[in-house]
């Protein structure tokens, strides 16, 4: 508080510095404290002398509420206006029972006290509200439209374009989403961004929501309460005509009244079976106020506002859940926080297009790691500053990277910002600096099902490459172990420019000519690695037939829903697939170590922008031993490859590789390419059905052209007529993403498939 600025008088009340100081002291000593999210409220019965300072209009008893804005409160709400007082001035003549702002100075406001009990005490969230109460609340929302725009404070610059009537509803919703990003997400991202990234909430999630707002019906704008839930509704037993009073107007705004209805529906915690009754009562109340246009398009547009409410709520809900844990965390507290975070993520999953939500057990580990990095202590663990971990003896520690440096890396991971966290299809990777070395802390995503098989241990593959001393730019394994939270991790050297906080650059739109040459040269160097300790299959079957067998086994193991949809699309089951693949084979070639997944995001540009010819090869979890031609063909299947680049790579590869690595390659390229298209038809469909891995960029790209993949796969399998019949279905064509489409939500897509 500052004594320099005079208290703002309301209706003639004037408080000088001495009066203000006396009132603050009295409230501090006598007031009953009620804590809110944004304010500390003290309810105090003023003596008659103090009550007289406000012109005698307080009545008896002279109860007031002294509201002090919390300076350390997390910014978790959208505020159109920073000052609640002029809003109350405008609302008072229309909703006469709302509080009056009697005086205000800096972060302290004095309001008249509204007597009664919060609705949350008489009817908690989740319980049905009596129909009379529903109609009364709908009436309050409708009466707010009587407040004229010129009586409200001027709109801030970010909202000033929304002052026309009828309102631009779609633009209002877009502005809301961008305001949530500006006022909620951005101020908290430096502290919480790493946690949100590990939970799968991308930095641009709200901006993406804003970009996807569809055309809405334009409704007349009006005053909105913005936060009408059961704690902000007072039941006044001495007001039989208007028993419900709306308080806490600090989040009020001016805009589409449908937003207020959506916020009210969600935050009131109505049972879902009562939503229709609430919406119907609201529409009737608007009609009764002569505001029929306010209900235009309510059926089609209300879900978009509900989506926004659930989308923006993930930020305050997660931040409050983890912040409430404090410095000492018990196992029960951690479980409750993880459940709350999981609930928030589930609610925001569809509106924000979140993919691969972590399980509750995984969320517990993510929260605890984040909290411990900020000094919290888990009560079941020994107190102390060390982050204990158990080393896996299969990877010896290096002299320059001992146990203390590993602990340093784990602490740095817990404190990482969102820019340091990278979520792939199967791993969560965090780039940190420890012991002067840039390293990546890699952890498996526990909720992800590994549909494509893994054959080798990544640390053994990287160890073999390092031991061979070949010219392959791959990470070095610095440590392997299990943290005190029980989760396994690997520390790799970071391959990229700029270190932590700088995004690695990938050739996502294809290789430059020099990069194409460099990749072929590294595949040649990879062929010199001794594979005898690694070879995953030693039987007499050829490598190609071995791949076919693994593909058939994968198809046999598809979830029931994925298999059912595959059948609808004309893709054969395991038995028929075996017969379709049986006639083909390739020329035997000498086996070498293969990367197995050379998609663009597993290639890192090391050169400066403009002359980047050197690539690093990362993420070796799908490495295997097999035909050297397969790695090259699979790379060209997974990456955008121009015809001239394809010819350049094949020509260079056939020239530098030994003869026993290349014989018969010309006729076998197409065989491998067709096998990969068929594999993608099953793998990408399963990702679309299950939603797993869709937040990884390589997966998003793959499923984004699924209609083309399916058509080619059915042709290669001799199922052309089945494919033609499937793709002639208009519902199916709409459901399947094409290369030029934005990836659609999978729920709507497969609902269309069900209707087919």
Identify the notable features of this structure and list them briefly.
alpha+beta, disordered N terminus, 5-stranded antiparallel beta sheet, elongated, 27 helices, 756 residues, 44% helix, 6-stranded antiparallel beta sheet
3D shape? elongated
Biggest sheet: strands, sense, closure?
6 strands, antiparallel
Low-pLDDT runs: 1-12, 381-385, 728-735, 738-756
Strand content: 5-15%
Strand adjacency order, main sheet: 13-17-18-16-15-14
- Rounded average pLDDT: 85
Number of helices: 27
Radius of gyration: 31 Å
Give the termini separation: 66 Å
Structural class: alpha+beta
- Helix proportion of residues, in percent? 40-55%
Per DSSP E runs of 2 or more residues, the count of β-strands stands at 22
Written description of the protein model:
The chain has 756 residues and is of the alpha+beta class. It has a 6-stranded antiparallel β-sheet, with helices on both faces. A 5-stranded antiparallel β-sheet has the order 1-2-3-5-4, with helices on both faces. The longest helix is centred in the N-terminal third of the chain and has 31 residues, at 169-199. It is elongated. The termini are far apart. Mean pLDDT is 85; it is low at 1-12, 381-385, 728-735 and 738-756.
Short structural description:
The protein is of the alpha+beta class and 756 residues long.
Task: Give the SSE map.
Layout: H1 17-30, E1 32-35, E2 39-45, H2 48-52, E3 63-69, H3 85-91, E4 101-105, E5 108-112, E6 117-118, H4 119-122, H5 131-143, H6 169-199, H7 205-211, E7 222-224, E8 233-235, E9 244-246, E10 253-255, H8 257-267, H9 275-288, H10 298-323, E11 328-329, H11 331-349, H12 360-372, E12 377-378, E13 389-391, H13 403-414, E14 421-423, E15 427-434, E16 437-444, H14 458-468, E17 477-483, E18 488-493, H15 513-526, H16 543-556, H17 560-568, H18 574-581, E19 592-594, E20 603-605, E21 615-617, E22 624-626, H19 628-638, H20 643-656, H21 659-662, H22 665-690, H23 697-703, H24 706-716, H25 720-727, H26 730-735, H27 746-755
């Amino acid at each position: 508080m500052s004594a320099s600025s005079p208290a703002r008088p309301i209706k003639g009340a004037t408080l000088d510095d001495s009066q203000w100081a006396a009132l603050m002291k009295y409230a501090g000593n006598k007031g009953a404290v009620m804590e809110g999210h944004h304010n500390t409220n003290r309810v105090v019965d003023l003596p008659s002398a103090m009550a007289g300072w406000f012109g005698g209009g307080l009545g008896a008893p002279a109860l007031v509420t002294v509201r002090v804005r919390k300076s350390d409160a997390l910014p978790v709400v959208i505020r159109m206006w920073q000052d609640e007082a002029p809003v109350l001035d405008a609302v008072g003549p229309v909703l006469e029972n709302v509080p009056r702002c009697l005086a205000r100075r800096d972060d302290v406001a004095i309001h008249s006290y509204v007597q009664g009990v919060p609705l949350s005490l008489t009817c908690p969230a989740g319980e049905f509200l009596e129909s009379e109460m529903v109609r009364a609340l709908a009436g309050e929302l409708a009466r707010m439209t009587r407040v004229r725009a010129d009586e409200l404070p001027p709109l801030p610059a970010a909202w000033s374009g929304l002052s026309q009537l009828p309102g631009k509803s779609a633009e209002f919703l877009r502005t809301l989403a961008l305001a949530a990003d500006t006022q909620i997400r951005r101020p908290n991202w430096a502290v919480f961004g790493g946690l949100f990234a590990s939970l799968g909430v991308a930095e641009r999630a709200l901006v993406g929501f804003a970009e996807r707002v569809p055309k809405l019906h334009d409704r007349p704008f009006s005053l909105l309460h913005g936060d009408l839930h059961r704690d902000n509704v007072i039941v006044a037993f001495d007001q039989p005509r208007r028993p419900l009073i709306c308080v806490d107007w600090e989040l009020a705004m001016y805009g589409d009244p449908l937003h207020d209805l959506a916020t009210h529906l969600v935050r009131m915690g109505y049972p879902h079976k009562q939503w229709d009754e609430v919406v119907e009562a609201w529409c009737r109340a608007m009609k009764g106020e002569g505001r029929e246009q306010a209900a235009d398009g309510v059926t089609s547009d209300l879900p978009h506002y509900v989506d926004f409410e659930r989308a923006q709520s993930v930020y305050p809900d997660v931040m409050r859940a983890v912040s409430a844990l404090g410095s000492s965390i018990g196992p029960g507290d951690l479980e409750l926080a993880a459940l709350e975070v999981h609930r928030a993520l589930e609610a925001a999953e569809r509106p924000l297009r979140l993919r691969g939500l972590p399980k509750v057990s995984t969320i517990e580990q993510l929260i605890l790691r984040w909290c411990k990095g900020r000094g919290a202590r888990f009560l079941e663990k020994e107190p102390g500053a060390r982050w204990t971990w158990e080393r896996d003896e299969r990877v010896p520690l290096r002299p320059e990277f001992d146990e203390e440096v590993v602990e340093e890396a784990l602490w740095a991971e817990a404190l990482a910002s969102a820019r340091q966290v990278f979520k792939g299809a199967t791993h969560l990777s965090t780039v940190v600096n420890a012991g002067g070395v840039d390293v990546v802390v890699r952890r498996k995503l526990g909720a992800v099902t590994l549909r494509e098989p893994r054959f080798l241990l990544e640390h053994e593959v990287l160890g073999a490459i390092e031991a061979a001393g070949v010219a392959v730019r791959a990470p070095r394994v610095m440590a392997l172990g299990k943290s005190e939270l029980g989760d396994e991790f690997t520390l790799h050297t970071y391959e990229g420019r700029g270190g932590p906080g700088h995004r690695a650059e990938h050739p996502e739109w294809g290789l430059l000519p020099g990069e194409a040459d460099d990749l072929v040269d590294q595949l040649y160097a990879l062929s010199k690695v001794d594979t005898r300790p690694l070879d995953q299959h030693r039987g007499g079957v050829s490598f190609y037939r071995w791949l076919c067998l693994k593909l058939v086994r994968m198809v046999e193991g598809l979830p029931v829903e994925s298999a059912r949809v595959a059948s609808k699309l004309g893709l054969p089951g395991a038995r028929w697939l075996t017969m379709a693949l049986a006639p083909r084979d390739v020329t035997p070639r000498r086996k070498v170590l293969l990367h197995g997944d050379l998609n663009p995001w597993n290639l890192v540009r090391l050169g400066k922008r403009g002359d980047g010819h050197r690539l690093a090869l990362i993420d070796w979890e799908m490495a295997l031993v097999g035909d050297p031609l397969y790695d090259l063909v699979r790379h060209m299947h997974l990456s955008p490859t121009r015809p001239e680049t394809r010819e350049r790579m094949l020509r260079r590869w056939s020239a530098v590789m030994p003869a026993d690595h290349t014989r018969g390659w010309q006729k076998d390229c197409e065989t491998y390419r067709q096998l990969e298209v068929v594999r993608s038809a099953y793998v990408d469909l399963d990702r679309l059905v299950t939603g797993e891995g869709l937040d990884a960029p390589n997966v998003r790209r793959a499923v984004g052209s699924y209609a083309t993949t399916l058509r080619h796969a059915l042709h290669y399998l001799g199922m052309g007529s089945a494919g033609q019949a499937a793709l002639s279905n208009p519902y199916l064509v709409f459901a399947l993403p094409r290369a030029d489409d934005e990836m659609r939500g999978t729920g709507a897509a497969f609902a269309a498939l069900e209707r087919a």
